[in-house]
Amino acid sequence: MSKIINYYRHGETVWNKEGRLQGWLDSELTSKGIEQAMSVNWNPEIVFSSDLKRAVQTARLMFPDHTIHKNDTLREIKLGHWQGSYIKDLQKDEQYCCYMNSPELFINTTQESFGDVTNRMIAFHEYLLQLPYERIAVVSHGVAIACLITALHKQPYNQLWGYLLNGAACFSVEGDSQQLHKDIFVQ
Questions:
Q1: pTM score, two decimals?
Q2: Which single residue of 12, 30, 32, 141 could bond 167 by disulfide (Cβ 3.0 to 4.6 Å)?
Q3: Are 45 and 137 spatial neighbours (Cβ–Cβ below 8 Å)?
Q4: Among the CATH numbers 3.40.1080.10, 3.10.450.50, 3.40.50.1240, 3.30.450.20, which is that of 2-182?
């Protein structure tokens, strides 16, 4: 069976606009984020979303006629003590600079590792491949989806930020379930 799995990033939030890190914390969608979500025109058979409020709200706006299946596996990377911080205030934090400039060298302390995010996103992707649906929508988060894309493209983490999606953007995975399963690469 051929599948299409569309991974969407949530719409722009107040904290995105303010330059603040969210991680597992939440802020409201902006009017732009609402417009981004409402501009999606696709009819999946089933919809999954991170359980974080900004993703659920985005999913409901994108797919108002569908039941939203919430799953905490689809959450954004947990950013520990950085959550809620302004990015401009972290520019002199050596660990944050490594996170941003050399993600392949990043060692987490209070944060979740890129490897842990990748593993949970790949596990969820593999779960989707087993489902009998051909058109699946998933609403998640920027870093979480970037970790998945990096793994699916068999790229090292130094390529991670090149796969970061903007508000309500989509990454589509298409093909035969068996081939998609064989193509998965875990770092």
A1: 0.94
A2: 12
A3: no
A4: 3.40.50.1240
- For every one of its 187 residues, what pLDDT tens digit does the chain have, with 9 covering 90 and above? 689 999 999 999 999 999 999 999 999 999 999 999 999 999 999 999 999 999 999 999 999 999 999 999 999 999 999 999 999 999 999 999 999 999 999 999 999 999 999 999 999 999 999 999 999 999 999 999 999 999 999 999 999 999 999 999 999 999 875 555 545 544 4
CA 114 distance to own-chain centroid? 12
Active-site residue, selected from the candidate residues 10, 112, 125, 141: 10
Contact 139, 64 (CB under 8 A): no
76 included as an active-site residue: yes
How far is 186 from 183, CA to CA, in rounded Å?
Answer: 10
